[in-house]
Each structure stands twice: as structure tokens, then as C-alpha cells.
Amino acid sequence: MALGSNLGDREATLRAAVALLDKRLGALAVSPVYETVPVGGPPQDDYLNAVLLTRPASARELLEAAREAEQAAERVRSVRWGPRTLDVDVIACGPMVSDDPEILVPHPRAHLRAFVCVPWLDVAPDAAIPGHGLVADLVTGLVAAGETAGLRRTAVDLGEGLTLG
């Protein structure tokens, strides 16, 4: 799952989301946090982004947990790709592929997003996106294309207080 926040207390929002998702799904790993420039949408503040790996769950369970976390953060959906207190996306669900309009798996733009692939690589070096290949290879391509220029790794540790694994 990919998490991002660019409104309010971004760090506190991500911490609360990780705690909720850990309680609901069980966290296996949480990436370092990256500060990233927004991709698309109107002018807005930078995001804090991270990736959370959870225990195996169905795509539907992941989506419900993501929506619960967004609701807890009082997310408002008013502008596509606009600023938000919290965005939680289901990026992949193992090798599963789904074209259900309510939950596309893998996420249709994950392989293009450095703010997803770079933190994911930090916690899962062997990860792959079905239909797109290894995340490590995707990151290599994103670096070569200059897509990682807007990423800055922070010292924020979202794993504090979690029993991972």
C-alpha cells in the first residue's frame, strides 16, 4: 500500500494511518518516508510518501482498510490529484490482476511513480508489479528518466512502536 499526505500535520497523519492499517491488516514492513513534489494536479505543497507492506489480504480487504484510513484522516475528494490529508492506494496484491473499476490491481500508474517505487524498493528489493516487472528495474528506469529528482528521503520513522512481521 502506498501512503501520501500533503495537508495538515503530514507526519502525524501518516503515523495514524500506519497504526490503523497495522491494527486492521498487520504490518510486515514500512518504508522510509520521502518528501516528494506533487505529480499532476493543481499547485500544492509537497507530499510525505511511504509504502506499507501488510500480511496477505484480498484486494477488497485492502481497499476497505485504505478507505477507513482515509476517512479517519478526514480526506475530502474534491479535486482530482489535488491536495489531501491522506491518500492510501492499493498498489499490488501479490500476483493478482484485477480490472474491477472499483479496485484496479496492480495500480495502473504505480510503475510510473518514483514516490511509490523508490520506497517500495527500500522494503521489498525483490518486489514486482504484475505486467511491469521488478520494482528494482522500474526504479533504474525512473532514475535514468530523471523522475527521482523530486524525492528526498527524510529521517521520519513510521515503524516506531510497531511490531513488524
Structural notes for this entry:
It is a single chain. This protein is of the alpha+beta class and 165 residues long. It has a domain at 2-109: Alpha-Beta Plaits, CATH 3.30.70.560. 30% of the residues lie in helices and 21% in strands. It contains four helices and ten strands, in the order E-H-E-E-E-H-E-E-E-H-E-E-H-E. The strands form three sheets. Strands 1, 2, 3, 4, 5 and 10 form a six-stranded antiparallel beta sheet that branches. A hairpin with a 2-residue loop joins strand 6 and strand 7 (103-105). The two termini are 16 Å apart.
List keywords for this structure.
4 helices, 30% helix, Alpha-Beta Plaits, alpha+beta, 6-stranded antiparallel sheet, 165 residues
